[in-house]
Specification:
single chain; Fumarase C, Chain B, domain 1; 2 domains; three-stranded antiparallel β-sheet; 21 helices
Length: 605
């Protein structure tokens, strides 16, 4: 399943709610080990969440430390100091139990006099799974934020009761997403419930929930990139499936071309030990095990470069995917909030913490923090790099791979490479014309070329600009959501291109089988080929005659319902590659990723 493209904000029917097939499953969030598969289970399939004690305790310790900082008169950005250009102006005075403190907190979190709407403009994101991914990451990150117990539990309640904030993603520079989680928890702004867009207060009520009362620094918990991180995690999951499809269809192409498997073999791969290219080669070799391409019949010594060099381009995309995966895992399991609140750190943990400058931000500990000290430091963690760079970088190797896909499809048009004339094969075996390959005889066709023209511009980066916001305090932009939307679009186009490649490969596998019925193709490509043929037959009449009747070619109800191109694209979206290649167990380089745990590294004294 690929993420959809949002429609107009005014059309409620355009909203894409999830199908909660995992609503009976619960994922425990600790703050440090949320996996991408777990995130997808929550966001896309409706798994419930449970907040682990260590996440609650971490948030409680930070919540206590920020109150203790107020008691010790330690300056804290966004809490007792104003934001942006007001950073040196005190905004909160008195101990946490003083009347002046209580009055300011009451004023700060009083219900607004006018209705509030989400920040941004244009359409809001129409995929419930994206909003749920944002909430899941936001909740997981609360392990490191000064969130009240009500705030932490409130996010869990939104997820478990199906309330999703409405999010406008355009019109922001992207230095933090400024997520509307807190707004929804207070019953302000707009939200979705059961596919309907409504005021957040109504959504909470319909779900059996109540607005929460903010305390302490709850109002400051908007400066995270949970939306970007959650969205990116969904893309990483879908890109993994895309790469699975590519490799499987690539194995079909090698069968279809009667191709050389020498470039994938151990002697070749071991002389160029790029781990992810070697991984891709081993995967496709395993898919082809048992195929006729390993037998001794005649085949040309060297395939077209676009097929022969696929292994290196596919390996590059796999490597880029792994890097993006690892970056997203760090982003989901750490904190990008400003300020950084770190209970338990002391001046002896690193030399810089004992300097007079940083001692200004040391909280000694006392009544409000249960005696625990720590540091509260202003930072730039909200800057969404390196995540944004890795998102944008993926499009380059993706495009370099897809040009090879386009070219190898066209090489089937030339008998110099195929050493076969498909029209003569069809004629010899009494098959009618009008075969259902990409072109009239199975090669090329205009659709994949047109899709290639759509994809190419998306490889170009969005150059970052400087801005002049709030007297220059904010002077950079990052636009992560724009870059994520572009990557989602590129992935969708590339998958449609794979659909054309699959149709062409299937046609040529039919030709190879007609040439010699004893030929085999390997279990995985054979499974995909035969399953596809149930939807798009080898011989298909694309249109009905004047009398409204087919001209005698084999048809199925599904085959008559749409064009082969649309049916192929739908097939790739409604199936998963592991339905066909589940038996292919080639370990990824590096094994399972290890998520670095935030905050455990301290310099020796």
């Amino acid at each position: 399943m690929l993420l959809g493209i949002s429609g107009p904000a005014s059309a409620e029917t355009d909203y894409r709610p999830i199908t909660p097939t995992m609503a009976d499953r619960t994922v425990t969030l600790t703050g440090h080990d949320l996996s991408i598969d777990q995130l997808v289970d929550i966001a896309r399939f409706g798994a419930k969440v449970r907040v682990a004690d260590e996440l609650r305790d971490g948030a409680a310790a930070s919540f206590g430390l920020i109150l203790q900082a107020q008691a010790e008169k330690v300056p804290v950005y966004l809490f007792n100091r104003l934001p942006g250009s007001g950073r040196e102006q005190a905004s909160l005075v008195g101990d946490p139990d003083s009347e002046t403190f209580k009055a300011e907190i009451a004023r700060r979190y009083a219900p607004p006099e006018t209705p509030q709407l989400p920040a941004g403009f244009g359409e809001d994101i129409k995929d419930e799974e994206v909003g749920r991914a944002m909430l899941a990451v936001d909740l997981n990150n609360m392990r490191y934020l000064a969130a009240s117990p009500a705030y932490v539990q409130g996010i869990a309640d939104l997820l478990n009761h199906g309330v999703t904030p409405a999010v406008y993603w355009r019109g922001a520079i992207g230095e933090a997403d400024f997520v509307p989680t807190g707004q929804t928890l207070r019953g302000l702004g707009l939200a979705y419930f059961k596919g309907r867009r409504m005021p957040a207060a109504e959504a909470l009520s319909a779900a059996g929930l109540h607005p929460i009362q903010f305390a302490g620094a709850d109002g400051n918990l908007v400066t995270t990139s949970a939306l970007s991180a959650g969205f990116a995690a969904l893309l990483v999951y879908d890109l993994r499936r895309f790469l699975g499809w590519h490799d499987l269809i690539w194995s079909m192409d090698l069968n279809a071309m009667n191709g050389s498997i020498g470039p994938l073999s151990l002697p070749v791969q071991s002389t160029r030990p790029f781990p992810w290219a070697n991984f891709a080669a081993r995967r496709v070799l395993e898919m082809l095990k048992g195929s006729y391409v390993f037998n001794g019949e005649y085949r040309i010594i060297q395939d077209p470069e676009s097929l022969r060099a696929t292994v290196w381009r596919a390996g590059s995309v796999w490597q880029s995917w792994a890097r993006l995966r690892d970056t997203v895992l760090i982003q989901m399991n750490s904190t990008d909030h400003n300020p950084t609140i770190r209970p338990g750190f002391s001046p002896g943990d690193s030399w810089e913490l004992a300097t007079p400058q940083l001692l200004k931000y040391h909280v000694k500990g006392g009544r409000w923090s249960n005696g625990m000290g720590g540091y509260i430091l202003s930072n730039s963690n909200w800057d969404p790099y390196p995540l944004v760079d890795d998102v944008e970088a993926f499009s380059i190797p993706l495009t370099n791979l897809m040009v090879a896909v386009v070219e190898r499809v066209h090489r089937f048009e030339d008998s110099f490479f195929t050493v076969t004339d498909p029209k003569e094969v069809l004629k010899t075996h009494g098959q009618p014309g009008g075969a259902s390959g990409v072109g009239g005889s199975g090669g090329g066709g205009g659709i994949i070329d047109a899709l290639w023209q759509e994809l190419k511009p998306l490889a170009n980066p969005v150059a970052p600009d400087g801005v002049t916001a709030d007297r220059g305090v904010g002077d950079l932009d990052a636009v992560p959501m724009l870059k994520l939307m572009r990557l989602r679009q590129a992935m969708g186009i590339a998958q449609d291109m794979l659909g054309q490649d699959m149709l062409n490969a299937a046609f040529w596998m039919d030709i190879r089988k007609l040439e010699d019925p004893a030929r085999s193709f390997g279990p995985a490509p054979t499974s995909l080929w035969t399953t596809l043929r149930q939807l798009v037959p080898f011989q298909r009449q694309p249109s009905l005659g004047p009398a409204g009747t087919a001209s005698g070619l084999a048809t199925t109800p599904a085959a008559l319902s749409d064009t082969p191109a649309n049916l192929a694209s739908s097939f790739l979206r409604s199936h998963a590659p592991d339905e066909f290649d589940a038996a292919i167990a080639v370990p990824m380089p590096g094994g399972e990723p290890v998520i670095p745990r935030a905050g455990l590294t301290r310099a020796s004294r």
